[in-house]
Amino acid sequence: QVQLVESGGGTVQAGGSLRLSCAASGRYGMGWFRQAPGKEREFVAYINWSGESTGYADSVKGRFTLSRDNAKNTVYLQMNSLKPEDTARYYCAAGWATNPMNDEYRYWGQGTQVTVSS
What we know:
The protein is mainly β. The protein is 0% helix and 52% strand. A hairpin with an 8-residue loop joins strand 9 (88-96) and strand 10.
């Protein structure tokens, strides 16, 4: 069973930055998703197991950067220029099925809350 442990959430003012981390007990292609109250879970970013391939939702492209340290089996989501609409619970996921932008991942973390105040 793969365990995913997220950290780094919090409250920040609009325009600020946060870095989320997700430590995995193995090496997998990883993704981040988010879910705001009353909304469906949506794709944020993915990175393949080697770190050579990444992808982003249009809403975060140019502001968020996903990277990984395979020596630590950890991925990092650097979030800059945060907006109030980025407020959501952010979930780390590992082991996508076919399309890393779909939420068909095998393993999920518990999530970490990100709140951006205006």
